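Friendly challenge for the regulars: who can give me the structure tokens for this chain first? No prize, just bragging rights.
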Amino acid sequence: MDQAPSWGVGSISSGGSTIVTANYGRFRRRIVTAVVVLVVLLVGGGIGLVALGGDEQGSDPVAVPDARLPDLGPAQPVLAALPGDAPVPDGDVLATRLTPLVTGAALGGGATAQVVDVASGDVLFEREAQAPITPASAAKLLTAVAALTALDPSDTVETTVVSGAAPGEVVLVGGGDPTLSRTVPSATYPGAPTVADLATQVTAAQPAGTPVTRIVVDTSLYSGPLTASGWGPADAPSSYAAPVTAAAVDGARVSPGSTARSGQPGLDAGVALADALGAPGAAVVLGQAPPGARRLAGVQSAPIARLVEQTLSLSDNVLAEALARQVAIARNEPVSFEGAAQAVTDALREEGLDVTDVTLADGSGLSPENVVTAEVLTSIIRGAADGSLGDASALLAGLPVAGYDGTLADRGDDDPATAPGAVRAKTGTLLGVNALVGTAVTAEGRLLAFAVVADGSTGSEAAAEGTLDQFAAQLAACGC
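First reply, four minutes later:
Bragging rights claimed.
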């Protein structure tokens, strides 16, 4: 297996999602040390003041001169901006270094790629960048941009509970937020709403002692098939996907924090509400809320911008599909796979992206029927980085950092002393498809946007990943 190059601190997953916790051991030790020193200083200072103030009998305190702080001068920024005059890499040098990688056997004898200077928009390297290719999970970038531009990034997604048609019946109405959590806090999605909160509100909204004997789960917000065209029978449920429904808990996982996804997300949400209401024996069925039903409870998801960040960092297929459906709702399209695909494509077109060669079958990239180009992918990254794609800059926060978090946690160099944050990128993997799309900061401080996608790989996944890593490493190490 090829050794991953040194990138600094953004693995390709097979469409699944991974929770990665950074190692803060040294950071915590420093905090503890600082606290101990502070306590010693305070205790020492207190003793000194008592000594100056006299004995325990309450003699008059001795005046202490006013303290004088040293002149430290103006504060320096913790995160310095990139130099505006950093040299642009030479295109001929990049071609010499990158061409052997994109044409090598590890990527199936050829790949599409493009490298763009963010500041100027100049194309520094490209190979078949306009050719249609299967993007795998890199397609989530299209969904992310559409969600951030068609919606307000501060918007949230609501899940409600209303009264049922009969005494003892309540209806859980799915609004399309799969992050609703069975635990407090969520084991997977920081900032997610909880079933416990819903249950507390339901109890408070009804006469004391009112029993709940039946829970109806209304998933009628979504229409059409529960899986997308191109998804295989083993894709949903699996460790990385589930049937797409308007009501779910914990990202449609079978249990909080687990890997396996459920084949019945809606019913799972109803069971979770029954448990939280202290009615584990209540019947749970799928159905619809009666017209004019009284609202009993409601909880809000984290903001859209945060959901985008979680989608990209974890490469979460379920959450990506939920975001695509929110775009469909905002654009008055059918809330289905087909309607969401149309809504995302139209939103990108309105932002000035050329989507002539873009075809979407889902919002997550799990379907091999998705088609995009390296040029479009690079345009998204550049537009998010230079501000020309409206509020899309928020997607940059979700790009995994090489050697540090998300789906790039185990790729690149995890030593913080080695140019941390040099590469941030979205990964993508399907059978025969390998992609890496993101930003790289050169050794001289120039910000580049890049996309490299191979959808004809026939060798090992490790070899393909290693080649993609080398591609990004060449950009990050460039003093050319």
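Residues 199 and 246 are 19 Å apart (CA to CA). The chain is about 30% helix and 15% strand. Your move, everyone else.
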